[in-house]
Write a structure and sequence with these properties.
Layout (H helix, E strand, L loop, with lengths): L4 H21 L9 E6 L6 H15 L4 E5 L5 H11 L8 H25 L3 E5 L2 H11 L4 H12 L6 E6 L2 H10 L14 H17 L4 E5 L4 H15 L7
Parallel strand pairs: 1-3, 1-4, 2-3, 4-5
Bound molecules: thymidine-5'-diphosphate.
Thymidine-5'-diphosphate (TYD) binds next to helix 2 and helix 5.
Length: 246
Amino acid sequence: LRRSPECHQEEADGHLRYRIIEKKLKGMGDNMKGLFITMEGPDGAGKTTVINQLIPLLQKHALVDIVSTREPGGSRIAEDIRKVILDVNNTEMDERTEAILYAAGRRQHLKDRILPNLEKGNIVFCDRFVDSSLVYQGVARGIGVEEVAQLNHFATDGLEPSTTLYLDVPAEVGLERIHKARGNRQFDRLDQEGLSFHTMVRNGYLELVKKYPERIVSIDATKSIEEVVEECFRVLVERYPKYFTK
Ligand code: TYD
C-alpha cells in the first residue's frame, strides 16, 4: 500500500490538530466548544433503557448534533479492547491489567470520537467514562481510587465531562433487575459478581457524588423509566439552555 505525500501531510496535520485540542481542553472546562455529558450507574440501574429513550428526546430539542457513544468501546480499536475485557473466559485477568485496558480503550475512543466531535461543537453523550474505572477498578477491585485516577489522567489528559448523570439504585435492586432481564440481556463476566461487589460499586459512586457535587447529578433510578428520563432531560435543559430548546 502506497500513500501519497499529501496523505502523510494530512496525517501530520491531523496529529498536530489533536495535540492543540488536547492542550486547549486542559483546564478549559465549560468553555470547550462542544458539550461532554456522561451517564454512570451500577449494573442494573437501567442505563441502557434510559439512554434509548433519552437520546431521541434530547435530539428533538438539541440545537447541535448529539453523538451517543459508550465505554468500554465506542470506536473500532476500543471495541476490540472491550471484547478482551468482557470475555467470560478471561477469569484470570489481573485487576491492573483490566484497569490499563479500560484506560487504553478510553484513550483511543477519546481520540477517535469524543475529541473530534467536541471540536465540531457537538454534544457527546457517553455511556460510562472515567468514573466507572474509579468505582469498579479503584474501589470494587481494590486498586485504589488515587492510582486509577492517575492512570486515567494519563489516558484522558485530564478531560472531564461537563455533567455526569448518575443513576442511583441500591445493590439489591440492581441485582434483581439483572436477574429478571437475564433472558434478553447478555450475561457478562462482571455480572457474575455477587452482592458485595455491587454494594462496593454503589458506595464508590456515592463517594464520587460527594467529591464532585457540581459535576455529578444523582438521580433516583428506583423510579419509573419515564420519570428517570424526564429528570435527566430536565437537568440538561436547565444546565445548558444554549444547547437546547425547551
Ligand atoms: P456493559 O455491557 O457495557 O454494561 P452496562 O450496560 O451496565 O454499562 O459492560 C460494562 C461493564 O464494564 C460494567 O459492568 C462496568 C464495567 N466497567 C468497568 O469496570 N470499568 C470501566 O472503566 C468501564 C467503562 C466499565
